[in-house]
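Journal club side-thread
Mid-discussion, someone asked how the predicted structure for our own chain would compare to the paper's figures. Pasting it here so we can look after the session.
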Amino acid sequence: MLFCVRAAPAECVAGPTAWIGRSLSCVCAQRRESGTRLSFDLSPIQEECLQRLQSRIEVPYDGSNEEHQEALKALWRTSFPGTELLGLVSEQWKEMGWQGKDPSTDFRGGGFISLENLLFFSTNYQKSFQELLCKKNGDRALWEYPFAVAGVNITFMLIQMLDLQSVKPRSLVGAVFLNLLLENDRAFDVLYCITFKLMDQKWLDMHASYMDFNTVIKSTQRQLERELLLEDVQRIEDMPSYRFLAR
């Protein structure tokens, strides 16, 4: 069963199984003594962009916070327009792919930003969001991935892939992403939408079922890393997989 991790290891968890070249401006690479990872010096504006995103990442979901409650209600409205939500704790939430009737227990792995990501997706790329939520496209497995919980795990995976909880990037992919963040302060949210749609496309291409989620996520991450390093990706919207998104 998929569930949201509550610690901070380098991977997300699915049941007993762990899962989860371009020129740079203003980024200087320095190899560490170990030679295993890179460290990148940031310009002041890059540091500011990273810190703003990190401040979002550090906010835990708080079920008693009115702002968080309203965001959760907004997610329901954009997901199921015209269907009344009976409560923040309700069996209705299972229709969206939460593990139980209280979504707040699933947000612990991704924090408030994972809810923000889902809400951004549902409001900015509504067509793609609904296709994934309702599993409208392709030949689907009898045992599908739970939409909402998968979304929280995608948030967590991206944070780890981009090394966003470090003082500065320790990988070329993380450094490249910071340049994209300079161009668009919602680049992380857009990348989330790209990732979710790409993951679902790979799910279909691989004829995957529930127990294959680990394999699909890893394949998705590898493709994201390749695309981010393409020379002609100067904006987040330049990523080849962005074409999968529809408003």
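Post-session note: DSSP finds eight helices and four strands in the chain.
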